Structure formats: C-alpha cells, structure tokens
Design the sequence.
C-alpha cells in the first residue's frame, strides 16, 4: 500500500474557485517529492488536503490507508499526530524555549517527561540545535527557527513530513542547509517528504520527483524533475 493515494480529487472553494481538478497522485513510502507551480496553482490546497486542513469537494485522499476526506472531525487529531508539518512562517510559541517548543506536542498527547526528554534531544541533534535548547525563538536566526520547526515536526517519528514553502523566507545558503536536513531525515529514517516550493535552485539540484501543478491540474510528474527554462515560477 502506498503512503498516499489521491484519486479523482477536486477542490472547489465556496467562492467558486476550482483550486484542484481531477488530481491523481500516488506517493510511496520513503519518497522525497517536490510540488511546484506558479502562485495560485493549487500547491497549498493539495497539501492541505493531505492533513485535512481542507476537505476535497470530490474524490479520495488516502494517507496511510485512511481516506482522510471522509475522516470525522473528531478523528483528525489522530491523523495529525502521525504527520509532521513545517510551514513558511515558523509558528513557534514565542514564550517557550526551543526545548519547550519541541516538547509541547508530546506533552499535549500525554507523554511523560521521562519519555519526552530523549526524543526532544534527539530531534534537536538531528537539526544541529541541541546547544540552543534553552534559547527563545526571538534569539535565533530565521534558519535556526525553521530548524526548530523541523525538530518539532519530526519529534514523534512521523511517517510523513509535509513542508509548505519551508525555505520561502530564507536566503539561498540557509535554504540549502534546511533542505540538506530534510534530505538527511529522508535517508536516515525513511520519512516520506512532500515539499511545496518556489525554490528553483533546490529543485534543480536535488533531481527528485517533481509534481508540477498548473491551474489546479497535474501538468507533469517527473521522476527526476526540474524547473524548465520556460516556467516563470
Ligand atoms: P498555491 O499554493 O499554488 O499558491 P493555493 O492552493 O493557495 O495555490 O490556491 C489555489 C487557488 O485557490 C487560487 O486561485 C486561490 O486564490 C484559491 N484559494 C485558496 N484558498 C482559498 C480559500 N480558502 N477560499 C477561496 N479560494 C481559495
């Protein structure tokens, strides 16, 4: 069973905009997939349907064998526990330390401190920030804050890590650092990674699978994809 199977999926928002149309995508365990396309092409909508931030108007979205389109609201938290999500804007809690930000998700599912501590330390080691665990978010650079977000997203060993423009606010060299951390997580833990991005340099350098969306339609799905010269975004 593939980790993700999206079948005949449509999303029409209440204002009549069709954000995604007849999308069919299969993603296997351990893949690293980029989702590219111009602004407004449906990347975020596609990604949001995977973690049930949006429900498709039609079609099925299977994540780990569960049709999340049909998932009852009361079960959505169970899905989210199995995923890690990284956003463009870091969404860290400003009054909590780095350690506390990463521990927070585990505390909220009732894990005890003895179990939490080694997991948080390991996650911070994985992103190279163990020595900053007592810092507060505003004492960190943008790249460091994003690394905390990655630690927070991987602390519970998710099978799937969803990244929506994770390097959108970062300089190219820092973006490279972030992507190499994602690459390491993918190869070391077999975590499936889906990353929506505008970052041409990264996509062209990595030579991974690339899904290109155009006006909500899957325009291409290349095994070793790249931005072509004619694509403006
Ligand atoms: P991308 O992530 O590629 O920029 P989006 O998925 O955000 O694309 O948007 C796809 C289309 O859906 C755009 O036309 C956008 O304006 C529209 N859209 C996105 N979110 C909403 C919403 N909540 N309500 C109405 N229209 C939306």
Sequence:
């Amino acid at each position: 069973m593939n980790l993700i199977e999206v079948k005949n999926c449509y999303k029409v928002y209440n204002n009549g905009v069709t954000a995604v149309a007849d999308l069919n995508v299969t993603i296997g365990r351990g893949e690293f997939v980029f989702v590219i396309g111009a602004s407004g092409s449906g990347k975020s909508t596609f990604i949001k349907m995977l973690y049930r931030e949006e429900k498709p108007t039609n079609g099925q979205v299977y994540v780990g064998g569960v049709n999340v389109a049909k998932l009852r609201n009361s079960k959505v938290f169970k899905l989210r526990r199995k995923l890690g999500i990284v956003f463009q804007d870091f969404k860290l809690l400003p009054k909590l330390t780095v350690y506390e930000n990463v521990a927070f998700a585990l505390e909220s599912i009732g894990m005890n401190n003895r179990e939490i501590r080694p997991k948080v330390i390991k996650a911070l080691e994985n992103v190279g920030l163990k020595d900053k665990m007592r810092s507060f978010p505003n004492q960190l650079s943008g790249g460091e804050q994003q690394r905390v977000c990655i630690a927070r997203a991987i602390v519970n060993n998710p099978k799937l890590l969803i990244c929506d423009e994770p390097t959108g606010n970062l300089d190219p060299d820092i973006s490279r650092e972030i992507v190499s951390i994602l690459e390491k997580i993918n190869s070391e833990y077999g975590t499936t990674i889906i990353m929506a991005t505008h970052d041409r340099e990264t996509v062209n350098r990595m030579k991974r699978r690339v899904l290109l969306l155009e006006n909500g339609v899957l325009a291409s799905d290349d095994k070793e994809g790249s931005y072509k010269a004619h694509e403006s975004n």
Q: What stands out?
A: Residues 92-157 form one domain. The mean pLDDT is 94. The beta strands are 4-12, 18-27, 32-36, 58-63, 66-67, 83-86, 160-164, 192-196, 209-214, 217-222.
